[in-house]
């Protein structure tokens, strides 16, 4: 069943009424369900399949002030050839000024190029700058834009400003997909996570993303659970599917598989593809590769067997 939300964004008042009319999140219940799902054990063949699926969902990322073209090319080589027959990752994620380098390095591999336009990680700049930043990144070859919302505006109740900025950045994306970063560690409550998720989706987000990775806490299991519930309910009401990307704090194979279980049990198997679920984590890739080798050979490689990020 498809529902129209055409009037929701008519004003700040109508947005507030809608967002604050969403069902409240049972914090204890969300924490307990996420913890319970985290105890699921996956073994042997299923574990091997889960590891390869997780690798294919990784957005391999470098977002440091000291990033260089050489570092980006090295990361792209790892993204396209992780080693030992492993699948390629979903995307590489870089600052806008390094998009052209990444696009050239992954050309023809199927690996997407994502860029954190819009004054990442703070988002504290004008809409004109955000739109220009986005357009330049797309023009340089970005397939995906990871934008950060204005948390100050959101927390002060200026939902219409956040909505209109997402709409404008989405328009600047053209054919590129838009991932909207909520920075859930700054949203204070689970209810705000649900509201921000719906606000981003109503404004046209193709993905909703937990965090920049620069703020703690980042992608906690309960927050990812709440966002998965939001995309599931949004599709039920609108007919449009939106992806989810937890980012930050996902470091081990166990963490990655816990996220796959969350997806399966909350949103369903339709989201268990790189088209609809991503892992914003770079350090996790080495552990996934180490565990993959252990399953295939019966022994671990040292942590320095794979390139260090």
UniProtKB/TrEMBL annotation:
Pfam family membership, one: DeoC
GO biological process entries: carbohydrate catabolic process; deoxyribonucleotide catabolic process
Catalytic activity: 2-deoxy-D-ribose 5-phosphate = D-glyceraldehyde 3-phosphate + acetaldehyde
Metabolic or biological pathway: Carbohydrate degradation; 2-deoxy-D-ribose 1-phosphate degradation; D-glyceraldehyde 3-phosphate and acetaldehyde from 2-deoxy-alpha-D-ribose 1-phosphate: step 2/2
PANTHER family recorded: DEOXYRIBOSE-PHOSPHATE ALDOLASE
Cited NCBIfam families: deoC
Family to which this protein belongs: Belongs to the DeoC/FbaB aldolase family. DeoC type 2 subfamily.
Protein name per UniProt: Deoxyribose-phosphate aldolase
Naturally occurring in which organism (per UniProt): Nonomuraea cavernae
């Amino acid at each position: 069943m498809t529902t129209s939300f055409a009037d929701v964004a008519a004003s700040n008042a109508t947005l507030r009424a809608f967002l604050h009319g969403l069902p409240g999140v049972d914090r204890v219940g969300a924490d307990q369900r996420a913890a319970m799902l985290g105890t699921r054990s996956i073994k042997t063949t299923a574990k091997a399949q889960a590891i390869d699926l997780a690798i294919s969902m990784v957005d391999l990322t470098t977002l440091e002030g000291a990033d260089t073209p050489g570092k980006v090319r090295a990361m792209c080589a790892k993204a396209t050839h992780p080693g030992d027959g492993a699948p390629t990752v979903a995307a590489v994620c870089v600052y806008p000024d390094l998009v052209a380098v990444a696009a050239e390095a992954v050309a023809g591999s199927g690996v997407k190029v994502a860029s954190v336009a819009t004054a990442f990680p703070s988002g504290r700049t004008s809409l004109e700058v955000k739109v220009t930043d986005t357009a330049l990144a797309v023009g340089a070859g970005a397939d995906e834009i990871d934008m950060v919302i204005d948390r100050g505006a959101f927390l002060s109740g200026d939902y219409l400003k956040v909505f209109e900025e997402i709409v404008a950045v989405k328009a600047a994306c053209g054919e590129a997909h838009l991932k909207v970063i909520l920075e859930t560690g700054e949203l204070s409550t689970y209810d705000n996570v649900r509201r921000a998720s719906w606000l981003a989706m109503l404004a046209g987000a193709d993905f909703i993303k937990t965090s920049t990775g620069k703020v703690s806490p980042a992608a906690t299991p309960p927050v990812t659970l709440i966002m998965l519930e939001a995309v599931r309910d949004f599709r039920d009401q609108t007919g449009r599917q939106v992806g989810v990307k937890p980012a930050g704090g996902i470091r081990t194979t166990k963490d990655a598989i816990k996220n796959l279980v969350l997806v399966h049990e909350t949103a369903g198997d339709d989201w268990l593809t790189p088209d609809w679920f991503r892992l914003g984590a770079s350090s996790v890739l080495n552990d996934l590769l180490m565990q993959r080798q252990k399953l295939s050979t019966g022994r671990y490689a040292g942590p320095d067997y794979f390139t260090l990020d």
